[in-house]
Specification:
- By secondary structure, this protein is of the alpha+beta class.
- It contains 23 helices and 21 strands.
- The longest helix is centred in the middle third of the chain and has 27 residues.
Length: 643
């Protein structure tokens, strides 16, 4: 089809040249659309039959990936149920270092659908996991729920072993603990070794890309390989040096977890070396689109991956704006410095809207940190590699290790200095997805206009700029500034009342620790509504809009009560409270009959953290008597706005 449409388009006859030339683009678009639909349908995870969901069953789990948290171990594995392969997210209590990638676990547990928390503007965890092919989860409280039934030495297992060996060798260098953690992260891409404070400092300084395997790491690796394989070039084996470099780069990408940014950089580097092998001109634009197409064909859901979006946005920014910020005479130090700064600025232009959307913050201190750290980083990695090679023979050269510690201290000091510069850190910023997308198209169109001077791109810039700003204005005007919502997750349930720039939080268990934990992990709603003053109430409180005396709460006339513990002991037999909403918390011990005895509620609200067995009994009782109820695990959010 592609061939015949091209023949129609390039036929010398004016009839074909003008009348049917559009068919080529229509056909090509149709083919790509069909291919995308086919790939997305192929990668769509299949749901389990109903008779396997929310029931305890026995199954075998092939361990694909392991993540050790502070108090739990997360395992991603595959299992065969009802003649289909399914991926599961499995959480084990405690840190289980005896389980390895490639192990086969014989398990007995209840498989549950992955749910989102009942919080407005919260991270869509269900979509995030679905894009990774995971729809279900299970949990093991003790080792009696599983045992290791076998092991298979998969390619992923060998890659993980290499990573663990690298970690072991780095630890043998006897460096400072912070330096060791940074080097392990730099070489393996595993950020669990870096403490949260260091991550925040690097992020504030605009050099967080040093901690994630990205195009920067692939570029440095290609540079180092070029130095190591230089003798092959001298011996007229130039093409072999490129082939070896490609193989090493892909081995490194696989070992570090096949992140979208690393795959993108590896594909583009492969295309560059391939062009040099066959003596063809390399086009970064063609390479950009080829790499994106390859990734999306193999994993269409990569389009929704933050790493994919950040990586390609950064490259688009570099393509559109890097030349504009480059100055100085060729092959001079000023030119080299301007190129580093230009690439940094261009990448920030490409990614700042995504950073605003996902992280609600922005740093402009990257000028200083990147200009100093990026040129030193390849030297730092070379010194570390040299030290590792020497240490493999049992020799530790103290001046080298001291030098490594010193260079890292420079990195850390620069990061701390950059992040502490006044008026360079902007937090609590909010932009919605539609506005971010429209403004991103406007920025790219403007960059293309600067390069091509085509009036159509300038018009596109104006149109998408107006669309993006319109979305911002419309959402700002439509945001309610007065209301409440019930925020529930698997740990706690809280009621948030907001009015103007003030918010008040009441916990269903009257537990201030749970309320603080909720507040720490749920900031986007407060940023979006520009709420600056947040108060957690755990003692009797009263003003013109709120009355609180646990377990009773009144918000602007809406009556709410909490059902907790054994209410038959807490209240008199003749006590009955009239409420609009009755929140049943995880610590409620009685049945529906007791609820009706002590509360006259219009709607029963079931928290997400009620045990499944208890919840099913309550729902069965509520359905039997026909009392309205809201299950926050399935119905998601209870939110009410006051006019």
């Amino acid at each position: 089809m592609h061939y015949y449409i091209r023949r129609l388009r390039f036929n010398k006859s004016p009839f074909f040249q003008h009348k049917y030339s559009y068919l080529y683009n229509i056909a090509l678009f149709g083919i790509l659309l069909f291919t995308g639909w086919l790939c997305a349908n192929f990668h769509q995870p299949h749901p389990l039959p109903d008779n396997f969901v929310n029931k305890e069953i026995a199954f075998t789990l092939q361990v694909k990936d392991i993540n050790q948290n502070n108090t739990t171990t997360d395992i991603i594995g595959s299992t065969s149920i009802a003649d289909r392969e399914h991926k599961l997210l499995t959480t084990l209590k405690g840190n289980k270092y005896d389980i390895e990638i490639g192990d086969t676990l014989y398990c007995k547990s209840k498989i549950e659908p992955i749910r989102n928390v009942s919080i407005p503007d919260a991270f869509d965890f269900v979509s995030y996991m679905r894009n990774q092919g995971i729809l279900y989860k299970c949990h093991f409280d003790s080792e009696t729920n599983y045992h290791i039934a076998g092991h298979e030495n998969t390619l992923r297992y060998y890659a993980n072993q290499i990573k663990e060996n690298i970690v072991t060798e780095i630890r043998k260098l006897e460096l400072n603990e912070t330096t060791t953690s940074f080097i392990i992260t730099l070489f393996t891409g595993d950020k669990k070794f870096i403490d949260q404070d260091t991550r925040e400092i690097f992020s504030s300084a605009g050099i967080a890309h040093c901690l994630a395997i990205s195009g920067l790491h692939i570029m440095i690796l290609a540079f180092i390989l070029g130095l190591i394989l230089k003798p092959l070039v001298w011996m007229n084996y130039r093409n072999w040096s490129f082939v070896i470099s490609i193989l090493v780069i892909w081995a490194f990408t696989y070992m570090t977890g096949l992140s979208s940014s690393a795959i993108r950089a590896s594909i583009m580097t492969t295309l560059l070396f391939s062009a040099m092998i066959i003596h063809r001109k390399y086009s970064i634009v063609n390479s950009f689109f080829i790499s994106a197409t390859i990734i999306i064909i193999f994993n269409p859901y990569a389009l929704f991956d933050i790493g994919f979006q950040m990586s390609y946005s950064a490259v688009l920014g570099i393509i559109c704006f890097a030349k504009i910020f480059t100055f100085g005479t060729k092959d001079t130090l000023l030119r080299k410095a301007s190129e580093i700064l230009a690439v940094t600025i261009a990448a920030q232009i490409g990614t700042f809207l995504l950073i605003l959307y996902y992280f609600n913050s922005l740093s402009v201190s990257f000028f200083i940190s990147n200009l100093i750290i990026i040129p030193i980083l390849p030297i730092f990695i070379l010194v570390v590699l040299l030290t590792l090679i020497i240490s493999s023979f049992g020799i530790i050269i103290i001046p080298l290790t001291k030098g490594i510690d010193f260079i890292y201290s420079i990195f850390n000091n620069i990061a701390e200095f950059s992040s502490s510069i006044p008026y360079t850190q902007f937090t609590d910023l909010y932009i919605n997805g539609y506005s971010a997308f429209a403004l991103f198209i406007a920025i790219v169109s403007f960059g293309i206009w600067l390069a091509k001077k085509n009036i159509y791109f300038l018009r596109a810039t104006t149109i998408f700029l107006c669309i993006g700003c319109s979305y911002i204005v419309i959402e700002t005007l439509s945001i309610s500034k007065h209301g409440f919502f019930v925020a529930s997750d698997y740990l706690s349930t809280n009621i948030v009342y907001y009015t103007g720039d003030h918010a008040y939080i009441v916990n269903a268990e009257n537990n201030i620790t749970e309320a603080k934990a909720f507040l720490k992990n749920s900031t986007k709603f407060f940023i979006k509504h520009r709420i600056d003053n947040i108060f957690i109430i755990d003692t009797p409180y009263k003003n013109e809009m709120i009355f609180y005396k646990y377990p009773l709460l009144s918000l602007n006339g809406t009556r709410i009560a909490f059902a907790k513990g054994n209410i038959n002991k807490l209240y008199r037999s003749d006590f009955q409270l009239k409420t609009d909403y009755l929140i049943v918390s995880k610590a409620y011990y009685n049945d529906v009959k007791s609820l009706l005895k002590h509360f006259d509620a219009q709607t029963i609200v079931l928290s997400m953290n009620i045990y499944e067995q208890k919840k099913s009994i309550l729902i069965k009782g509520l359905n039997k008597i026909g009392l309205p109820y809201l299950d926050l695990e399935n119905d998601k959010i209870l939110q009410k706005n006051f006019n």
